[in-house]
């Protein structure tokens, strides 16, 4: 049951995106252990020279069995990472090679990982599908990831990042927030944008209610 739950989680949205490497690594370790594939992340079996002896045939069968299980481990790793990452790792010849490259790029606080985090944070814009509360929660998580990677942002940097990430339709609000001296930190700007989002939603709801009343009256 636990294995099925982890597979479901990974397929629903908890696939590797880079910043979630630590928890992804733990889940994949458990999953591949349950599937009796974990050894493929730590060892490589090489093909023995061709021969007609009983031992040669046995070695060949062992290698074919190992190769089939290794491909299964490779597929599992690829299936549990975000589509944007698949192209960068599908060339790996073995599961161990892929596992090692992922650890090098995303494990610890490598320069590559930090660069990815910074770029993602600087380019991040609010997804229309997310509420403002969800949006600031995502940004808070990104700020925490940057801090854990050794890049702690100042309060001013955090505030400006939130303002920069707001939709284009919020151009006036971005200007107001930028010049609001009462906004000192992430909590302040988060509270302001969430309140503004609630205000806009209330206005839309009132407008829809009014329009509905007019149609009903006609």
Quick structural summary:
The protein is mainly alpha-helical and 218 residues long. The chain is 69% helix and 0% strand. 19% of the residues are buried.
Key terms for this structure?
218 residues; mainly alpha; 2 domains; 10 helices; elongated
Shape: elongated
Global mean pLDDT: 84
Euclidean distance between termini CA atoms: 58 Å
Task: Note the run of SSEs as H and E.
Answer: HHHHHHHHHH
Specify the biggest β-sheet: none
Q: What fraction strand?
A: under 5%
Radius of gyration: 25 Å
Derived from helix and strand composition plus strand pairing, the structural class reads mainly alpha
Instruction: Describe the oligomeric state of these chains in a short phrase.
Output: single chain
Work out the count of structural domains. Answer: 2
Sequence stretches where pLDDT stays below 50 over 5 or more residues: none
Protein name: UBN2_2 domain-containing protein
Pfam families: Retrotran_gag_2 (PF14223)
Tell me what the structure shows.
The structure is a single chain. This protein folds into 2 domains: 2-106, no CATH class; 111-217. The protein is built from 10 helices and no strands. It has helices spanning 2-12, 21-34, 54-79, 83-89, 95-106, 111-123, 132-148, 155-165, 171-178, 186-217. Helix 8 (155-165) packs parallel to helix 10. It is elongated. The model has no long low-confidence stretch (mean pLDDT 84).
What order do the helices and strands come in, and which of them pair?
Layout: H1 2-12, H2 21-34, H3 54-79, H4 83-89, H5 95-106, H6 111-123, H7 132-148, H8 155-165, H9 171-178, H10 186-217
Helix pairs in contact: 1-2, 6-7, 7-10, 8-10
């Amino acid at each position: 049951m636990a294995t099925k739950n982890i597979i479901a989680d990974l397929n629903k949205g908890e696939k590797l995106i880079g910043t979630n490497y630590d928890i992804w690594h733990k889940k994949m370790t458990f999953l591949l252990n349950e599937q009796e594939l974990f050894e493929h992340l730590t060892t490589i079996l090489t093909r023995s020279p061709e021969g007609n002896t009983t031992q040669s045939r046995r070695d060949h069968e062992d290698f074919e069995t190992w190769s089939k299980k290794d491909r299964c481990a490779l597929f599992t790793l690829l299936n549990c990472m975000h589509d944007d990452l698949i192209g960068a790792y599908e060339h790996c010849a073995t599961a161990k090679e892929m596992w090692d490259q992922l650890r090098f790029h995303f494990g610890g606080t490598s320069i590559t990982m930090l660069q990815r985090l910074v770029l993602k944070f600087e380019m991040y814009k609010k997804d229309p599908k997310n509420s403002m509360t969800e949006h600031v929660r995502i940004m808070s998580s990104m700020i925490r990831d940057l801090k854990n990677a050794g890049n702690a942002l100042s309060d001013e940097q955090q505030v400006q990042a939130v303002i920069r990430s707001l939709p284009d339709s919020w151009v006036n609000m971005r200007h107001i927030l930028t010049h609001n001296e009462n906004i000192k930190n992430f909590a302040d700007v988060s509270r302001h944008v969430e309140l503004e989002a609630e205000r806009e939603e209330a206005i839309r709801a009132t407008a829809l209610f009014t329009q509905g009343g007019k149609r009903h009256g006609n």
